[in-house]
């Protein structure tokens, strides 16, 4: 039994370095995600100000002319696609489904960070806690202090990664829900006009 316990302890300790590397990678991805979400917010705010009234009033011809040629955000690409061709009900459903799939793909990073952050943080916490307790029992205060630093650092980084994931997930879900609603409304307006506006 002692051999099995030592093997288990060795395996658990060997996972600390990969766990810390994964946590650092997730932290960098979280920072990049913050920048991307902020950029998306600025673009969305500008587009909402410029196009929401045209969409609401069903002025598809003016909307078609007002769309920027250089904006390649997901929403603008699909809006441009709908406005650039005669729209049937089947094509509108197909386009909205594709948009939802791509939006879900964009949101998946936020979901992954919100779930993996606490898991990796907890793994690092529990692995580093064991040597800290051994250091406490043997009177090795400096070793215990070092391991407690690792315990707290992995917990904090994991929680920060999770918080970034949760916050960006909430914002993006709300934004994409509005985009789906706008695309659906534009497609219905175009179908009512027979694709001619």
Report on the structure:
With 197 residues, this protein is mainly alpha-helical. The chain has one domain. The protein has 6 helices and no strands. The longest helix has 52 residues. The protein is elongated, with a radius of gyration of 25 Å. 22% of the residues are buried.
Helix content: over 70%
The sequence of SSEs as H and E is HHHHHH
Radius of gyration: 25 Å
Overall outline? elongated
Q: How far from one another are the termini?
A: 79 Å
| Total count of domains | 1
Strand proportion: under 5%
Oligomer: single chain
Arithmetic mean pLDDT:
88
- Number of strand segments: 0
Any low-confidence stretches, pLDDT <50, length ≥5?
none
Please summarize the sheet with the most strands. none
Q: Classify the secondary structure makeup into a structural class.
A: mainly alpha
Instruction: Provide a count of the helices.
Output: 6
Relevant terms:
mainly alpha, elongated
List the helices and strands and how they pair.
Layout: H1 2-14, H2 16-56, H3 60-66, H4 74-83, H5 89-138, H6 141-192
């Amino acid at each position: 039994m002692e051999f099995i316990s030592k093997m288990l302890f060795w395996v658990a300790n060997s996972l600390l370095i990969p766990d810390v590397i994964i946590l650092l990678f997730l932290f960098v991805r979280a920072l990049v995600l913050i920048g991307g979400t902020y950029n998306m917010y600025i673009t969305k705010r500008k587009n909402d100000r410029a196009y929401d009234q045209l969409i609401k009033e069903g002025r598809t011809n003016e909307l078609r002319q007002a769309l920027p040629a250089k904006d390649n955000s997901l929403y603008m690409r699909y809006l441009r696609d709908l406005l650039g061709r005669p729209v049937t009900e089947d094509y509108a459903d197909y386009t909205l489904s594709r948009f939802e799939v791509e939006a879900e793909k964009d949101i998946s990073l936020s979901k992954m960070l919100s779930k993996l952050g606490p898991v990796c943080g907890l793994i690092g916490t529990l692995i580093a806690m064991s040597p800290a307790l051994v250091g406490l029992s043997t009177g090795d205060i400096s070793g215990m202090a070092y391991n407690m630093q690792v315990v707290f650092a992995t917990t904090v980084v994991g929680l920060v990664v999770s918080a970034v994931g949760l916050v960006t997930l909430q914002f993006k879900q709300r934004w994409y829900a509005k985009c789906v609603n706008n695309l659906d409304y534009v497609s219905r307006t175009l179908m009512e006009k027979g694709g001619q506006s």
